[in-house]
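Form 7-S
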Amino acid sequence: MDFSLTSDQRMMQDSLTRTLAEASSLDRVRKFAGDLTDKGGDIWKAMTDFGLAGIVAPQEHGGLGLTLLDAALASEALGRAVAPVPFMGVVLGPIALMRGGSPAQRAEWLPKLASGAVMAVAAISEPIAGARDGAGVTASDGKLTGKALFVPGGMAAGLLIVADRSGGLHLVRGDAAGITRTLMPGIDETRRLAELTFDGVAAELLGGGPELLAALRDAGWVLVAADTLGAAEAMLEKAVAYAKERRQFGRVIGSFQAVKHMCAEMAAELEPCRSLVWYAAYAFDAVPAEASLMAAHAKALTSDVGRFVARTSTEVHGGMGITDLLGLHFWFKRIGVNRQLLGGPERVREIAARLQGLAA
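Output:
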């Protein structure tokens, strides 16, 4: 039995990688990181021209109708390129509408999301990762009050999927009265995280309840894990390439046994992550009974392995590894933020234990 990717999936990922190499080069990423007024509009246009905005949206609404596995492969390519694209909302928005939206809501929003005319974000961190700093959103009489933190792409989104404290999900228009958006400072300069404050904001309740929130959580975990996988793969490749060209004591450093071991350990730790992430993405659509546990394992494992690869790759580069010239810090910081998005590995493993009945 063949468990590998299909030729179409490989072609899609390769094509996206080539598109990103041109649209989101390291110089372009560096420019985005150094200018908070830079919205990355040219990169987003390149992604919408590619069809990424509608990757999971159904074909009848103008999307590609692909699976979460296809989206995970795209997320892996985005992580490899440290592309400043808020991809999580691109995927979670259509999933929320398809599984919990009314026919009218789907008809109104899915074509806009599929075309890239509107960007969606999911403000779901608090009920998953745990509320902090007084964050959390309360729903009452069709209105939302409270604060949602760490929302990727939340500064510019035209459609908000917001989770309340009880696990309910709500649809909020980006131009609704009572929304305040504040850019949150963070170490990852390739993505902008927003603090969203709601003051009696009108919202439409989505169907599905906690089950829908769990589905968005699982999909989010897979996408973050895939992004980390791609970023870690890039850091490993850069370490190996550097070890082959950097000379010390009259020979390339890759000939030293210690450096060989460092590169081999990174490859050995990273290899199981790939199959785990791919299977977790596959299970989301094809094996729902395993989806939550596999997503949790994928998120937790890549969080730990990604940190190991980021640290070890930087060590292989020596002092050059921390310079802006190489830009290795973009991948390093992205992996670090991914580790905490939607819950750190300790929190995710706690949820996995509950799913298996091993914890109350």
